[in-house]
Amino acid sequence: MKNGTLYIGMTNNMERRMYEHKNGLIEGFSKRYRLSKLVYFEFYQFVNDAIKREKQLKNWKRDWKISLIEKENKSWNDLAFDWFD
Question: Would the pLDDT of 65 be above 80?
């Protein structure tokens, strides 16, 4: 949802991390704000590239992040909606 909280993170296991987010298993920002919807992601072969991109995105203005999401996912659908039972 465009007016909600945006979370940017990095993981080496997207499915596990989304399970943790959706079930509130890890204390912190995403649990506190009940963030469980995956609306955009990028894959990187090398962890250093992923870290660099994460830092870049975290420094972006909110409007830029929204534009990036909507370029790929205009309706803000949960891209992990059917990953789990």
Answer: yes
Token couple for 21: 């987010």
Q: What does the alpha-carbon distance between residue 39 and residue 81 come to, in Å, rounded to a whole number?
A: 10
* Contact call for residues 79 and 73 (beta carbons, < 8 A): yes
Confidence (pTM)? 0.89
Would you list the DSSP string of 5-50?
A: -------S-HHHHHHHHHTT-S-SHHHHTT----------SSHHHH
Q: How far apart are CA 40 and CA 80, in angstroms?
A: 10
Q: Which residue has the tokens 């949960």?
A: 78
Sign of CA dihedral 9, 14, 16, 22: positive
